[in-house]
Amino acid sequence: MAQRPFIIGVAGGTSSGKTTIVERLAETLGAPSIATVKLDAYYIRRTHQSMEERAAANYDHPTAFDWELLVEHLDELVTGRPAPVPVYDYAIHDRTAEVNLVQPAPVVVVEGILVLWESTLRERFDLKVFVDTPADLRFIRRLSRDVVERGRTPDSIINQSLATVRPSHEDFIEPSRAHADVIIPEGGLNRPALDVLLARVRELASE
Description:
This protein is 41% helix and 21% strand. By secondary structure, the protein is an alpha/beta fold. Helix 1 (18-29) crosses helix 7 (191-205) and helix 5 crosses helix 6.
């Protein structure tokens, strides 16, 4: 590519509305102009663990992610080369043998709960966004999503939220908002704030 891509990090609690923001960015900029990398794809391999061990793991803790591989792939995109992003299967709590070849683009978005926590990743962002959504709304969204899309039971979701999701949010995700350039309350539901962000991204990306 002729110049370095404009890199955006979008962080926030689980089910805060990060994906909605990324989708609006893609609609605004046009699909060929944006490449999206999701942090969830970089959960560490757990092939050596039993299903019981995998189910009990803390997936909201920084140690749950392969940061080195994510940074390596982001650097590939920055230099104009495609990145072989892993494909993660939530049903088995592990990566599959497949990869998703993400092509370089003028704008690269890295989205995930802890992308502003990891300093090695954070320093590569040109714009850092934190989506700030109330805990009760995030929990309701997560409950609905995981039952419908991931085949989980309400009890398992509640237990996980109490044991790992809420503590990790308080310990790692919430403090990472201090690194944000832009904070969007209530994510994609906040249309005025989202419109301002989109306008700013268009302006910065065109510089």
